[in-house]
Amino acid sequence: MGTDTPRAVVSPNDGRVFAHWCPDAPAEAERHLQRLAHGRRALVGDHQLRRQVLEGCIEGLQSARLELAALVVREVGKKPGEADAEIDYAISFLDHCRVLLDGVEFEQTIEPGRLVTDVGLGGAFLICPFNDPVAGLTRKIAPAIAAGCPVIVKPSSLAMLCGRAMFSAFRQAGVGNEIQLLATGDSELAGRVLRHDEIDIVSFTGSTAVGRELAAACAAGGKKAVMELGGNCPFAVFSDADVDRAVADLLERKLKAAGQACSSVNRVFVEEGIYPEFRQRLMERVEAVTAGPSDGGVDLGPVRTREAADALVDVVFRVREDGERLLTPEPHKVGNDSPFVFPLTVVESGSNSFFDRYETFGPLLSIRPFSRREDLLERLSRERHALAAYFYTGAPEALQPHLGGIRFGSMGINSTAIQGADVPTGGFRDAGFGREGGVWGLREYLTTVNFRLGA
């Protein structure tokens, strides 16, 4: 397929094509890079322009709110309430970075005649996933612009309509060359942009395998890389925990975006003394979950593609072959012109499970008992996909000191509300490096210039 061949957009809510988008040709990508150079020169040292760009983005999102939320439902398959909340979440990143502009000291006099200035690294290439088709873009755009870095954003091919609608709203609000959108699903063209001299930092959210390739390309070109990669997130429930609360929080987090988030819960570890009670309460709630098209008032919407739904069915078959126990009805492959619905599926796993090596990116959940807290914590300290972890206990203050040896980028104790525009998110090891959110996300786009002023 050529780079300029129109791409069909299939809605996960009914499995049918409802729109097309045309990819950018290489010549248009080159024009984006030329505009990026103009944006970089404009942003250097001009904090007022940075503020104006952020405010323009906020204005654009507010004016296009209804259109964008409806498109998030239709193109990506989020439920209407989730789509509406995402617009607020997207705006929060822009607003927080606007506030940071008034609080961060970009120049410091170290001693008489010595000035250190924080400056933007340069042009930024931002590669975004489909699962947060609006907020996933602004969480990268906002700190880059606040730091003085113009950006080229490449939305996922699975969320391109949302990306284009958002950028159209930006343009109508007066945002100019400081932000460009690259519409492509061509990895070769994306690689050409990444290697260009105008690009100095690359931020990517996605799979570990792709992130490693991009990080290697950045290293070869002397470019900074910020990578938020896969997370195989554990959810530990100790015997003194409030079981009802743990079950409720677990399901709320798992059902959001049909489990298609790197920080979603994948594996549940329950202390064996309460395991029978926990399993019973969980399965009672699971049996009541409704699944279907996201605009139909259901609890669980579809996954984004037919291939993703069918791959989850294959995983269930694989783990059953390994002797793991299916606690819910067996899922089936998606039919033609059908919603890409994969029902909430629970598997009872052993101590050495396929789920420990596979990131469940969807409504598929593994549960199992454990006997000793010390053994569980030691196990979690060796995790490779260390993005987020959740712990439920009746004594949170007593547990927290024991988590010092566990390196996850975010940890929730009796809460799954770990994210926000003002806090850092990111992982360790195979879950990536670098941070997004808060002043920590802003710092990723900054470097320093050391001025020595002679007499």
SSE map:
Elements: E1 7-10, E2 17-21, H1 26-43, H2 47-63, H3 65-76, H4 80-103, E3 107-111, E4 114-120, E5 123-127, H5 135-147, E6 151-154, H6 160-172, E7 179-181, H7 187-195, E8 199-205, H8 208-221, E9 224-228, E10 233-237, H9 243-255, E11 265-271, H10 275-287, H11 306-321, E12 325-326, E13 345-348, E14 364-370, H12 373-380, E15 385-386, E16 388-392, H13 396-399, E17 410-413, E18 428-429, E19 432-433, H14 438-443, E20 446-452
Parallel strand pairs: 5-6, 5-8, 6-7, 8-9, 10-11, 10-16, 11-14, 13-14, 16-17
Antiparallel strand pairs: 1-2, 3-4, 4-20, 9-19, 12-13, 15-18
Helix pairs in contact: 2-4, 2-5, 2-6, 3-4, 3-6, 4-5, 9-10
Describe the structure.
The chain has 455 residues and is of the alpha/beta class. It is built from 14 helices and 20 strands. A seven-stranded mixed β-sheet has the order 12-13-14-11-10-16-17, sandwiched between helices. The protein has a six-stranded mixed β-sheet with strand order 7-6-5-8-9-19, sandwiched between helices. It has a three-stranded antiparallel β-sheet with strand order 3-4-20, with no helix packed on it. The longest helix is centred in the first third of the chain and has 24 residues, at 80-103.
